[in-house]
Amino acid sequence: MIEARNTVKAFGQGDHVVRALDDVSITIRKGEFFTLLGPSGCGKTTLLRLIAGFEMPTSGQILLDGADITDLPPNQRPVNTVFQSYALFPHLTVAQNVGFGLEMQGRPRAEVARTTAEMLALVKLEAMANRKTSQLSGGQQQRVALARALAPKPKVLLLDEPLSALDLKLRKEMQVELKRLQIETGITFIFVTHDQEEALTMSDRIGVMSAGKLQQIGSPKDIYTRPVNRFVASFIGETNFLPATPVAGGLKLGCGAVIDTPTDATGPVTLTIRPEQVRITDPTEAGAIPATVTSLVYFGTDTHCHMQLSDGAEVVVRVQSPASGEAGVAMGQQVGLRFLPGAAQVLQD
Predict the structure, then answer these.
(1) Is ATP-binding a UniProt keyword of this protein (predicted)?
(2) Neighbours of 294 (CB within 10 A)
(3) Among the three residues 175, 196, 231, which one is the final residue of a domain in this structure?
(4) DSSP 54
């Protein structure tokens, strides 16, 4: 549905040129929920603005459904955008806000009324149709903005961090709603966020960006379990990084333990392993990696156990919090660690 080919967007001149997008090529499929994920300043919003037509690329092309739209103005693109600020009209009712874009397109009054009713039903706001938007909660206003953007039935809906202004509970509820809306409408959603949880829970695929470049594209599971480099591994969820050296039989950690992880590397590498992929065992068990519990952080259902290996390296282990009356690990306790088979991934950068 959307293709960016060798896209460059530069700001400034001479020695002060900044490449917000640096030769980015990406293909987004029809009907998928695709998320651009990365820290502030990585280029994700710039790419969204190029697709919307709010910015022109310095070089490269933007295609929509096979047609080159690089030079088309925003109003000639079958694309709508939902912004971080809802940009609703406070003097209009909910229904009038939703139908506004259709009226600007000169649609017949009956069609505007019918489509507005359909959109309000889709976002479950039928009962709020005659209220002013200033009388709505933040979550309800966000639904109005979504209904307004969906009403003209765009081929692509662009969402620029639309949930960032909501509180945590409402944000989680809206994540479910957004995914439901995308499935029900079948419209291609391109979602921009710096929140890894949003990306993992809603997306069909994720494009991780850093410093104007795409680092990796894949399903949430692929991105999480098979990161291609240290940036992706650290940005997507929590992880442990351990220096290692190739030896016969696997990789040797600084503490002397050998991990059965195949690699073609001939020099030092970094291992990454997620906290939930490490198990705490008896320190006398054969093959266990000796460690000392240095701190415990309680998260309700889970507890993060911070460990120190004999060489000073730190490992965080995520375990289920013990039930009332059950004994868990204690500060200063000597334990053993085991990595789940195949869990440790080799990074060479």
Answers:
(1) yes
(2) 14
(3) 231
(4) S
Cα angle: 277, vertex 192, 2; to 5 degrees: 110
Distance CA 93, CA 134 (A): 9
Q: How much of the chain exceeds pLDDT 70, in percent?
A: 98
Sheet strand arrangement including 334-339: 278-281, 334-339, 289-298, 302-309, 314-320
* pLDDT range class, residue 325, cuts 50, 70, 90: low
Report the predicted TM-score, pTM, of the whole model to 2 decimal places. Answer: 0.86
Token output for 8? 């460059």
Q: In whole angstroms, give the CA distance from residue 40 to residue 160.
A: 12
- The residue written with tokens 């002013």 in the block is 132
Q: Kindly report the CATH number assigned to the domain that includes residue 102.
A: 3.40.50.300
Mark 208-247 as b/e (b = at least 16 C-beta within 10 Å). bbbebbbbbbbebeebbbebbbebbbebbbebbebebebe
Place of tokens 């209009």: 92
The DSSP bridge pattern shows strands 302-309 and 240-247 to be unpaired
- Contact (CB, 8 A) for 147 and 98: yes
Its domain, for residue 225, covers 2-231
The label of the residue with tokens 């519990």 reads 293
Q: Within 10 A of 312 (CB to CB), how many other CB atoms are there?
A: 8
At residue 220, what is the residue type?
P
